[in-house]
Amino acid sequence: MQNSTSKNIWQVIFASSAGTLIEWYDFYIFGSLSYIIAEKFFPSSNPTLAYIATLATFAVGFIVRPFGSIVFGRLGDIVGRKYTFLLTLLLMGGSTFAIGLVPSYATIGYLAPILVLILRLLQGLALGGEYGGAATYVAEHAPTERRGYFTSFIQTTATLGLFLSLGVILITNLSMRPENFYEWGWRIPFLVSVFLVITSYYIRIKLEESPLFKELKAAGKTSKNPLKESFGKKENLRMVLLALFGATMGQGVVWYTGQFYALSFLQNTMHISLSQSSIIIAIALFMATPLFIYFGHLSDKIGRKKIILSGMILAALAYYPIYKAMDKTVDLSNKTEITEAYVVERTQSKNSDGITLERVAHQHTYNDGTKQKDIFITHKTGDVQEKTEKKVEFTVPPKTAAWLIFLVFIQVVFVTMAYGPICAFLVEMFPTRIRYTSMSLPYHIGNGVFGGLMPIIAVSLVSKYGNHYVGLIYPIAIAIICAVIGALFIKEKPVKDLSIDE
């Protein structure tokens, strides 16, 4: 049943992973550029509120993911895995491209955030259907004894999608003047996604349906009502709830804390420059990504559960000291300014609305090589000065950057432990006829709701209490609760063949 040739399984993995990577890329461009989106699509009278509103819009995409998992999971269990994730790919790609075309708040007012919100809803629905299809598709091709190893390649796509989004943003940013990037260049990563989606669709359309699903369909055993079978039957509902509260809930907060909140903390709490913070995260992700494969492979040998829960516990114990060490690197109290290195940079440009932007940057250099820029951007219409915005931006020396890379890398190691084996773990919990639906819902609630809300909850807590680390209470608590539930109530079964008769 699962005796796929080596060539065939790698074709399946490549096609499934390529499409999923592009969908994650599309999804995370928004988060990676959230600080610019806050300025472009929301009123600028209160920058903190605009940023929180942007994170809320970002979070909406996560909140609707469970609904996408229900809609597309049902479709995948009735129609098939292949055509369902082709549809989600096109929906995601079209929504991302459209965000790059939405006019700014200065041009169309409140219609701008409304349009962006609608497109984020569509993105979330699409992603809710994508992962379950790709994961199920690969798992139903993979040989039993190597299921953790082969499905772990799907697990790399979320991190690689974030890595790709950071890379495209960084290249675009470095290829033009800063004022041009802030004015219109930020749209380019959204617009180029259309070419990536077309390429991925071409690769995927050549795939055949999952052999297990074809066998199920030929035998007339496909589910007539996957939702009722998944959530209406007591025993299967119990497994869905255990998958959520004993695995994916904690895995979700570890994923978003170790990668997304780390980026947000660098940019918005520590005020590290866009280019340097992107490089720090990108290098850490690049170094740690192979560990997804390693822990997926290890789970074939020693079991999935202990690796997943260990990642949660280690993360909960390490977050506070890690973020305190990160924050300390830009603490100026122990640094001495080199006064003769003080410089002032002045530039002037016009935006698309005809407003003149005068940018004055006061650069302070400290004895360890840290550079601080106090940037004042004045908006003028003719000779009338409308408003002045102030930003603080740090650039740290190579030694400090290397230390920050290491601290982020450690967090991503926890991510790889919790996330690498989770696909095989979830696939093995549910029967073939309702697998797409049953595994998608707990995955997307755990990742989309518990994990996806992590950045806005953390930033809101920091904003309210003024403590840089108070936001960590949420992921630490969720990770510990999930690990305890998983340890007590989930009994890991021996790995077995997937069958249409389960």
From TrEMBL:
<feature type="transmembrane region" description="Helical">
    <location>
        <begin position="237"/>
        <end position="257"/>
    </location>
</feature>
<dbReference type="GO" id="GO:0005886">
    <property type="term" value="C:plasma membrane"/>
</dbReference>
<keyword id="KW-0813">Transport</keyword>
<dbReference type="GO" id="GO:0022857">
    <property type="term" value="F:transmembrane transporter activity"/>
</dbReference>
<feature type="transmembrane region" description="Helical">
    <location>
        <begin position="448"/>
        <end position="466"/>
    </location>
</feature>
<feature type="transmembrane region" description="Helical">
    <location>
        <begin position="184"/>
        <end position="203"/>
    </location>
</feature>
<feature type="transmembrane region" description="Helical">
    <location>
        <begin position="277"/>
        <end position="295"/>
    </location>
</feature>
<feature type="transmembrane region" description="Helical">
    <location>
        <begin position="307"/>
        <end position="323"/>
    </location>
</feature>
<feature type="transmembrane region" description="Helical">
    <location>
        <begin position="149"/>
        <end position="172"/>
    </location>
</feature>
<dbReference type="InterPro" id="IPR036259">
    <property type="entry name" value="MFS_trans_sf"/>
</dbReference>
<keyword id="KW-1003">Cell membrane</keyword>
<feature type="domain" description="Major facilitator superfamily (MFS) profile">
    <location>
        <begin position="12"/>
        <end position="494"/>
    </location>
</feature>
<feature type="transmembrane region" description="Helical">
    <location>
        <begin position="49"/>
        <end position="72"/>
    </location>
</feature>
<feature type="transmembrane region" description="Helical">
    <location>
        <begin position="84"/>
        <end position="102"/>
    </location>
</feature>
<dbReference type="InterPro" id="IPR005829">
    <property type="entry name" value="Sugar_transporter_CS"/>
</dbReference>
<keyword id="KW-1133">Transmembrane helix</keyword>
<keyword id="KW-0472">Membrane</keyword>
<dbReference type="Pfam" id="PF00083">
    <property type="entry name" value="Sugar_tr"/>
</dbReference>
<feature type="transmembrane region" description="Helical">
    <location>
        <begin position="401"/>
        <end position="427"/>
    </location>
</feature>
<dbReference type="InterPro" id="IPR005828">
    <property type="entry name" value="MFS_sugar_transport-like"/>
</dbReference>
<feature type="transmembrane region" description="Helical">
    <location>
        <begin position="472"/>
        <end position="490"/>
    </location>
</feature>
<feature type="transmembrane region" description="Helical">
    <location>
        <begin position="108"/>
        <end position="128"/>
    </location>
</feature>
<keyword id="KW-0812">Transmembrane</keyword>
<dbReference type="InterPro" id="IPR020846">
    <property type="entry name" value="MFS_dom"/>
</dbReference>
<protein>
    <submittedName>
        <fullName>Putative MFS family arabinose efflux permease</fullName>
    </submittedName>
</protein>
<feature type="transmembrane region" description="Helical">
    <location>
        <begin position="12"/>
        <end position="37"/>
    </location>
</feature>
